[in-house]
Write a structure and sequence with these properties.
alpha/beta; about 250 residues; binds 2-phosphoglycolic acid; 8-stranded parallel barrel; TIM Barrel
Length: about 250
């Protein structure tokens, strides 16, 4: 069974630092056969995507590239827009849609997200669709309902991955309790059958094992802890040990 490690570099790294980190990851991936069952997906900033993707391609690495966003249409009068088919040509295999930061800081609502999903789908990009409730919604016992509503946006298109990322756990150092993540993943799995589910929100080398061990969890989406080589290699090392132990 394939597992996923999605490194979302957000806007943390310069183009030069992104290129440096991908070179290190390519070497690491090549030298570690145990990573065979893990699909490593790197989402560099939009400005670094082309050169990071070229480095992956040149080295024939198995690392996959994801864009952190795409436009609502593929071409036309959309100043600042990002064409999904051009992303594909640049080497992106996936695109992250519905990330909490896009919803919060860029006011991306269901209507906009569904346009992005359809543009990305038409261009042949795999969709990594993010869902997750706010702290208030969780306290009001509305987490399940909110996530189900967010999942409605991907109806009709099968995403490549669903990332459950409670908004209050992103970038705060406060990951959700693994059993609570599992509870949500099980309910997502009932809604979107057959789509691998990843957990995201303050994942790091200390807590990754607990999430990888969950039954309905096929991987992780990692932000800040994935922006250093030490962070990535430690998390991948722990992940592969668990996968191997499970295979025995
Ligand atoms: P974090 O971000 O790991 O820094 O909390 C996760 C994400 O937003 O994808």
């Amino acid at each position: 069974m394939k597992r996923y490690f999605v490194a979302n570099w957000k806007m943390y790294l310069s183009v030069a630092k992104s290129e440096q980190l991908i070179r290190q990851l390519i070497r690491y991936e090549r030298g570690n056969k145990i990573l065979r069952d893990i699909e490593i997906i790197v989402a560099p900033s939009m400005l670094a995507l082309s050169s990071v993707s070229a480095l992956v391609k040149q080295s024939r690495s198995k690392i996959k590239i994801a864009a952190q966003d795409c436009g609502i249409a593929d071409a036309g009068a959309f100043t600042g827009g990002i064409s999904s088919s051009e992303l594909k040509k640049m080497g992106a295999r996936y695109v992250i849609i519905g990330h909490a930061e896009r919803r919060q800081f860029f006011n991306e609502d269901a209507m906009m997200l569904s346009k992005k999903i359809s543009a990305a789908h038409k261009a042949g990009l795999g969709i990594i669709y993010c869902v997750g409730e706010t702290q208030d919604e969780r306290h009001a016992a509305r987490a399940g309902e909110v996530v189900r509503e967010q999942l409605r946006v991907v109806q009709g298109v099968t995403p490549a991955l669903i990332a459950y990322e409670p908004r209050w756990a992103i970038g705060t150092g406060l990951a959700i309790e693994p059993h609570e993540a599992e509870h949500m993943h099980a309910s997502i799995a009932r809604e979107v059958r057959g789509v691998p589910i990843c957990y995201g929100g303050s994942v790091n080398e200390k807590n990754i094992a607990a999430f990888i061990n969950l039954e309905n969890t096929r991987g992780v989406l990692v932000g800040s802890a994935s922006t250093t080589f030490v962070g990535c290699s430690e998390m991948l090392g722990r992940m592969s040990k668990i996968i191997q132990a499970k295979a025995i």
